[in-house]
Description:
The structure holds 2 protein chains of 2 kinds. Chain A has helices at residues 8-35, 46-100, 107-128, 176-180, 188-200, 204-257, 261-285, and strands at residues 131-132, 135-136, 162-164, 169-171. Chain A has a domain at 53-253: CATH 1.20.1330.10. By secondary structure, chain A is mainly α. Chain A has a two-stranded antiparallel sheet with strand order 1-2. A two-stranded antiparallel sheet of chain A has the order 3-4. Helices cover 68% and strands 3% of the residues of chain A. The longest helix of chain A is centred in the first third of the chain and has 55 residues, at 46-100. Chain B has 2 domains: 3-68 and 428-466; 70-188 and 274-425, no CATH class. By secondary structure, chain B is an alpha+beta fold. The longest helix of chain B is centred in the middle third of the chain and has 60 residues, at 130-189. In chain B, helix 2 (71-97) runs parallel beside helix 6. Chain B is built from 11 helices and 13 strands. At the A-B interface, helix 1, helix 2, strand 2 and strand 3 of A face helix 3, helix 9, helix 10 and helix 11 of B.
Amino acid sequence: MAIFRVSNAFSQRVFLRNLQRNRGSLDEALARTSSGLRVRYPSDDPEAAAELLRLQEEMQQLVMRQRGISQARPWLQMLEEAAGDLGEILTSAFQYAVQGSSDTLDDAQYEALAEQISGLRSQLMSLTKLKISGRYIFSGTLTDTEPFDADGHYQGNDRAIQIHLDAEQVTINVPGDELFGEMGVGGPMQVLADLEEAFHDADTERVQALLDDLRDAISANAAMLSRIGNRRKALEDADVRLQDRQLSLQRRVADLGSADMAEAMSDVQKFETGYQATLAAGAKLFGPTFFDYLG
Amino acid sequence: MTVFSQFAIGRTAMRAFRLGMNLSGYNVANANTPGFSRRRLELGPLPTIAVPGGWAGMGVDVVSVHRVRDPFLDFATRREMGRLGADTARAEILAAMEPMFGEVGTNELQGALTNFFDSLESLSVQPDDPAVRENVLAAGRQVASTFHRLDTYLVESRRSANQQVADKIDRVNDILDRLSQINVELLGLEAGGGEASDLRDERDRLVDELSGLVSIRTVEADNGQVSVFLEETGDTLLAGELAHPLGTFQDAEGMHHVTVLRGGEQVDLTGRLRGGALGGYLAVRDEDVPGYRERLDTLAAELAREVNAVHSSGYGLDGSTGLAFFVPDPPGDHMASSIQVNARIEEDPRRIAAADAANEPGNNAIALRLAALREEPVTGLGGHSFAGYGADLMAAIGRDTASADASRQAGETIVDSLDLKRQQVAGVSLDEEAADLAKWQQSYQAAARYMQTVNRVTEMALGLLAG
């Protein structure tokens, strides 16, 4: 700009405005350094702010998913243990059935076997009553109802309880009648009851016939175990995926929203130097005029 | 050449130089007076008279004392001041509003929405847990109160812009009133010739201020009277001694409207004035903030609509069904200010519908669908998710705030550089005044010495006579 005349009032105004601008830049750089944030208010960088808000929401979703996973984990663990225990019950019952299928046993021995099966049946019944935080896990969605009544009839429903994983959902329960069968319908519960009855009756033929049913129940249980295992795997896989995504999101949030500390610090230096220089120049501005030299 | 005319030459010179010194003093005294234009003394020789053998001068004449000013720079500066006034007003309101919505990391709206959907997600994991249900209820209340609060911030911003509109209208009318007086006074003072510099300075200062308030065009007549027109509509605000003040009335919302008298009728110009601080406040009051409010209302309405659609299809623990989660249902016009959690649910959180069948406490099918709304694109929000729409709204406010502030800063730079040019012409330079003062002083001394010499010569002549 070509300058023809310089008036004092204007020099002061220019000086003050420059001083304020430098001071503003310095404060802004200081705020960036102390908060560690590049984008504090949306107006600092509107596009980055919109992206940051979206990323924050996405991160929060991941956190909730992970919380869901950690709450679903005990369900699947308990299902797995229960199915495993049931498998052991069935295997023991099978061994007793093999013992009892020979004709060489006397009545007392059959009674003793019946006693064993009765014990296994009550173990099974106690498995059906497993709870997590007060909720029956084998009643379908009727979580406040005992899965089986005293006669072994299923009182729950066949509804699945699901939670969100990544994109898909995972079922965290197994209706009790699917795992344990039901009296009058079939499955482990019925087979064990029949076996106990056959031992009471010392009915070798029936015991032999039940061996097949027990084999079926054992293989059905093994299939169920692997299904539950697959669900657990899906859960853990999702957990790992979520953690990976969370890491990459955190990195993007940091890239977008965090101040580059080295840059922020050097900005502070730069603007402070500018501020000092302006101050020094200002001191000159209010120095002598020609008036001081008039005799 | 008589003795008396010799004295007269000295007298005119001493008077002129003393006046020069006075003016330097006056300029120095007003070096910091806003709107002051430096004064200049224009001198010319007095008419010469015939003397034997030629012409002799009679002394020096004060031709004029006038302001130094460049009308083109005034025009350019004022046009930019109108824009700057508008940008500054907008930036001021927006910059005060933005922080109320919170920092990016702790954004209120997003925080409330996130919290709400988190609680629904927890509900889907533990649909029969009373504590989780209390959380859903609390999060729902937080969503409603956040919408209310943000809406209140927006209403308050509008109200403060509205107050400024009223103040600026008053100020514009005050200035017009004073300018019309000045137009009258100017004619009187300058009738005998000569410039009423102080009055003209005051007038120019007022026109400067006026041009920061509304976009105006000014015309200065030969007699020095200034006329003022509205830039946007061409309406006359001041013609000679006649001011046409802006009219105003309040609408049902209490918003001040700006009118002018045109053909005997008050014409509403509220939607057309966008220049100057008045226009800036009108723009932020009638365009920016209502735009945000509308988007906030849309978000609240769509959230209520979507959540209610799913929720009312579900069943509470007590077997209740068909309940809307948010009321009013269907959503009303100003949903952001009216959204509430349904009182029936407030009474008993067991009525929160997590199940898609009655009497199944572990059934979480509806809770899952409610939680899934979080990510779903919503047609009424242009295919955005709730959080995405909220983020866009925040970004829009940020963007408008940033751009208003950027225009304000750019405008300041332009006005500054124009003003610098203006000050280069009209401003007082102390160095220059000191030099002038020295010049007048020396000239005065020389004139005095001349008088002394004339006096001595005269005395000598008288002495000869006496001798």
